Amino acid sequence: MKRESLFPLAMNLSRRDFLCRSCNGIGAMALAGMLAEDLRADTALLNPLAPKPQHLTRKAKHCIFMFMAGGASQIDTFDYKPSLKKYANQRLPLLSGLSGEIEGFLKAPHRAIPSAWDFKQYGQSGRYISTLFPHIGECADDLAFVFGVKVDNNNHGPATMHVNTGSPLQGSASVGSWISYGLGSPNQNLPAYVVIQDPRGAPVNGAAVWGNGFLPAAYQGTLFRSSGTPILDLDPPEALTRERQRKEFDMIKWLNERHNSERPGASDLEARINAYELAFRMQKDAPEVVDLSGETEQTKKLYGLDDPTTEGFGRQCLLARRLVEKGVRYTLLVHGVEISKSSWDDHGNFKERMPQHAAEVDRPVAALLKDLKQRGLLEDTLVVWASEMGRTPFINDLKSDKPGRDHNQYGLVVWLAGGDVKGGSTAGETDEFGIKALGEPIPLRDVHATILNLLGLSDERLTYLHAGRFRKLTDIGGRVLTEVIA
To answer: Any idea which architecture 52-235+280-484 has in CATH?
Structure first.
């Protein structure tokens, strides 16, 4: 057979005709791609929490973020500074690179306050950790530390918002909302983003800490109670059968969708429609999550549920593990209440208060890490420890016999574990007194960029168009701290 008979059309086409028809073909391909994008958009609209692919290949599919409300002192936890002992009750040398309130504190009359506790080296990494945290110390080789993290404000309210949302101002989307938006949820019967706060009360800013901000309302955090019915009014009336309730929901859904069709782009309304469906599905799964009766006594003891001191945060940590098992994407655990003795805000009497805070969380946090690891879940789960700021290694009160520590926006310590985290590694370093970073500080946006990266998300690609601007968790962009990634 002749070659011309195999391709009769091609042999008779001029170059101009070939290019014209090729361009039309390319246009058709582009149109098909645009239609596919529209189809995906419609799917996301119908179910905003449908699972989405990672931007990057990463092991971690879930995140547990532990927030120590009040400003945990780095000097007394994880940032070992033996040089402070030489300056005990003396004035410290002035440091460059400081501004604002912390610069004023250091220039004013003050005295150095070394840590009241020894530090011990743990694991093969030889990590120095305060003896207040012997159980976390046992997990040292699984932890990667970031020292000298700088937040943008020296006060609790803005700093808490900055750590949890990327902005010191209210109205921005929280980290968990961004992650839910970027990845969706593997479990459609539970929220993608669950919050379990301290059983004693709420943190500074309350629900704004886990709000969706400008993102669609479907991505806000859902507050779970740590015992009993996880969400108030979730249980149906006893006389209402599942079948009858399903019919009622179907009628409500039909009415809501009809109402919504006349109001396109109303994300609050779309979220409410989805919330009805999610609530119906949660009525079965959510109570099972907080029911710990199936856990062994050994597991309960591991988390400290047998001790009133550790029971509160121990239950939070155990529930976080169970939520990971259920496929919940992001869990926020809050320890500390407002600005009170039950928070880490130790302006006075830190020698008595720090041991109490540490005792409440040390055993439960270590239990969570060990339990996840032994169940093979730590590879799939990124665990983060953070507070809203560090504390000063000095005090301006020259007379008190029960001194404390003041705010320090330059000294935050964050640690990470699980997934692709390089256990035993370090990013950043602080000066010999633990006040600020040596050299350039690590801006908080770098920590956020690293968290996103470890969950397979690029902070540059994870954007949302709001008020004419593509918004990002990291605002102007962050540097991924590759030092802590395996």
So the answer is: 3-Layer(aba) Sandwich (3.40)
